[in-house]
Amino acid sequence: MRRLPLSCLFALACALTGGAPALAAPLPPVSAFFETPHLSHVKISPKGSMVAMAVRQDDSTLAIEVRDADNPGKGTRLALVDNVNVGISDIHWINEKRLGYTLKNLRNNSTTLLDEFAIDVDGNERRHLISGSWNFQKEAPIGSLISSRTLPAGHMYVDSVHDGSDDILIAKFIWNNTEIMSESSRLYRLNTRTQRLTSAFEGSQPPAIKRWMTDNAAVPRIVTSRVGGRCTSFYRKPNDTTWTDIDSGECLGDGKRFTPLFFDGSDSVYVQAAHQGYGALYRYDLAAMKLDPEPVVSTPGFDFSGEPVIDFDSKRLLGLYLTTDANTTIWFNAALKADQAKIDAALPGINRINCAAHCLASPILLVRRETDRMPSEYVLYTRATGKMIGLGSIHPEIKAGQMGERSFHRYKARDGREIPVYVTLPVGKADAPRPAVVLVHGGPMVRGSSWEWDDEAAFLASRGYVVIQPEFRGGDGFGSAHLTAGFRQWGAAMQDDLADAAQWAVKQGWVDPGRIGIMGASYGGYATLIGLIKDPQLFRVGVAWAGVTDLGLMFTSSMSDATRENLDYSMRTTIGDPDTDAELFRKYSPLQRAGELKQPLLLAHGVDDKRVPLEHATRFYRAVKSNNPKVALITYDDEQHGWRKQETRLDFWKRVETFLDTNLKQ
């Protein structure tokens, strides 16, 4: 069985995984970037005595292992997972002696159903808590007096309770029998040994709950409901049976951005709220139902994006993980701030400390090290001695010296709006402008990237392409004005931002204007297709996977998993109304203008895609193929909206490499 490095003391040379190899060395293959990670889901136990992880074996199966934190060479294998048909979705500690893990059957057509298990760290007392199959029969076989306690599909793990018990929190989804997605949910406690299920609270609940928030004693205190395009936050006191409305507004477009995030142990909650056009972190007094006058943390130029570090002994906030242009950590606790300084002095890059539930008392910290040129590496740090032991890298074949550097910029679009963008340059000094790819993120109402390692950008840069990743208007994370400026701008101003990014990169001297491609998945696939049609003089080739091809079809496809709430409200706000905006839909739907697309195009789609059903790809392919022999369509069985299986990822990216080499590099 494969064992990852266990004894590497992280001096600088070791941290760089062997230093920079000669540039003439063979480039790492596609598999080095897109194989299932060698190491994943690494979690330190609540008291810091053990570390759990998924380890890829030589035969590509995954083993879930638990190792001693002070001697990682000693450990126990708890499960072996067939990586071809099953993926590990999560590993989580229930208490110091018990572990939970979530598996996803990659041949199950649902996008939400997961299997949940629990097991002791010595390998005993394994329980199948939740079935990920609708075909699972809860009743016992005829003639048996014992019924299965495994919960049927429609339940999902939410969180551990951090009180030392064997309990976890799970959500039960409520269905309306007409849609694939649930209309609401209810929260329960589940004992992972007895499998006894109890309600997490008493009393009724608001309708259409999409998000639960518990305090640091695992008591549900705040929920977010979404009805008729309005998002409402409700609050309850710990022992109350009624809920009080503390905030309500349009889910999109009002710039208010009031979002409860986490508790700090008192009767205060931290929320994201508007501050000078951006989302900032505020303290909200639940007793007074009042927001503090000034934010706790604001990040000018960026919406607050972060996670709390909570010590569940003291129930206090110790620090915050933040993302601006890159990841960072703010520590409010002096001891952990000092630990961070020592670790940063020894390990170049961005180091995120993980210390689980009993953070202050933990003798060993788990560190995830990140840079733009190296995939994540994991290190165990002993606080008393400063000793560091490396656990390994998620992609150990990658060498930093062969990888390009990433940088963050802002450029002005044609209407004067500043657009953030990440650029990854190939390694080495260029004698002339290089070929480039505009890599468009999906969503589109999400943030696309950060400075740290990006598999796709790193791979493309390793093959000699400048990779341009615009954070175009309509995406989250860069202020409410940036988000709302993209409403009803599919194919219009959102698309202009992508063309402007390519032209800006040309002006920097990085990019050959005659060798620019565009590619992306989902919305990025849509942007690729309309970009080839709208700007044929700029974009020479395109690669689109899981891409939208017709705006109207998003509202009418019988195979789509879009909920009625999304169809009637959010999609009409962000994309447009299929009735009143019919001309806009015609103008900016690639399918309606397929005859205009003449450049080389590679299309790919999952047969079981419910988010963007396969008919988007097949209709578009038929329409383009009649006038363009340079288009190809690949379909993948047992794949949904994005590539889940290793065999698919490797096949797809090998095809991308060949396609770009043939049509763009020269």
List the keywords.
about 675 residues; alpha+beta; Rossmann fold; eight-stranded mixed sheet; 12 helices
Mean pLDDT: 90
The count of helical stretches stands at: 12
Distance between the termini: 43 Å
Quick one: CATH class of the domain at 404-663? Alpha Beta
Q: Strand share of the residues?
A: 25-35%
**Oligomeric form of this entry?**
single chain
Count the E strands.
35
- Proper CATH architecture of the domain at 404-663: 3-Layer(aba) Sandwich
Strand order in space, largest sheet: 28-29-31-30-32-33-34-35
Helical amount: 10-25%
Given helix and strand content, the structural type is alpha+beta
What would you say this structure looks like, in words?
This protein has 666 residues and is of the alpha+beta class. The chain has a domain at 404-663: Alpha/Beta hydrolase fold, catalytic domain (Rossmann fold, 3-Layer(aba) Sandwich). The chain is 17% helix and 34% strand. A hairpin with an 8-residue loop joins strand 15 (230-235) and strand 16. The longest helix has 18 residues, at 646-663. It is globular, with a radius of gyration of 25 Å. The chain starts with 11 loop residues before the first helix and ends with a helix.
Outline of this structure?
The chain is built from twelve helices and 35 strands.
List the helices and strands and how they pair.
Layout: H1 12-15, H2 30-34, E1 39-44, E2 50-56, E3 62-68, E4 75-81, E5 86-95, E6 98-105, E7 115-120, E8 127-130, E9 155-160, E10 167-174, E11 184-191, E12 197-199, E13 209-214, E14 220-227, E15 230-235, E16 244-250, E17 259-263, E18 268-275, E19 278-285, E20 290-291, E21 306-311, E22 316-323, E23 327-331, H3 334-346, E24 350-354, E25 364-370, E26 377-382, E27 388-393, E28 405-412, E29 418-425, E30 434-440, H4 455-462, E31 466-470, H5 480-484, H6 493-507, E32 511-521, H7 523-534, E33 541-545, H8 553-556, H9 564-574, H10 582-587, E34 601-606, H11 615-625, E35 631-636, H12 646-663
Parallel strand pairs: 30-31, 30-32, 32-33, 33-34, 34-35
Antiparallel strand pairs: 1-2, 2-3, 3-4, 5-6, 6-7, 7-8, 9-10, 10-11, 11-12, 13-14, 14-15, 15-16, 17-18, 18-19, 19-20, 21-22, 22-23, 24-25, 25-26, 26-27, 28-29, 29-31
